Amino acid sequence: MLLSELAPGARFRVQGVTIGREVGKRLADMGFNNGVEGEVVRRLFLSGPMQVRILGYNLLLRKSEAAAVEVQAETGQPSP
């Protein structure tokens, strides 16, 4: 499953980043590494960015960047 497919409130565990070069390195530097858990906070209108909480901080990802992150959806309560 891709990060871009998740709805707000969904928790996930990163499985890998499928894009290389600068964007892939930047995503890895921001914490998108295998096994890291996160949560989708909100999605903006249409094809806009999505807000994700990972490693204790919030960031916005373009839809194309989120589509390059493979995740496993986690079940359970969203974090506060």
CATH architecture title: Roll
Rg calc: 11 Å
What's the number of helices?
2
Principal-axis shape: globular
Spell out the key features of this protein.
80 residues, alpha+beta, SH3 type barrels, five-stranded antiparallel β-sheet, globular
What does this structure look like?
- It is a single chain.
- With 80 residues, the protein is α+β, with helices and mostly antiparallel strands.
- It has one domain (3-74): Ferrous iron transport protein A (FeoA) (SH3 type barrels), CATH 2.30.30.90.
- The chain is 16% helix and 38% strand.
- The protein is built from two helices and five strands, in the order βαβββαβ.
- The protein has helices spanning 21-29, 63-66; strands at 11-17, 37-43, 50-54, 57-61, 69-74.
- It has a five-stranded antiparallel beta sheet.
- The longest helix has 9 residues, at 21-29.
- The protein is globular and about 30 Å long.
- 22% of the residues are buried.
- The model has no long low-confidence stretch (mean pLDDT 89).
Describe the structure in brief:
The protein has 80 residues and is of the alpha+beta class. It has 2 helices and 5 strands, in the order βαβββαβ. 22% of the residues are buried.
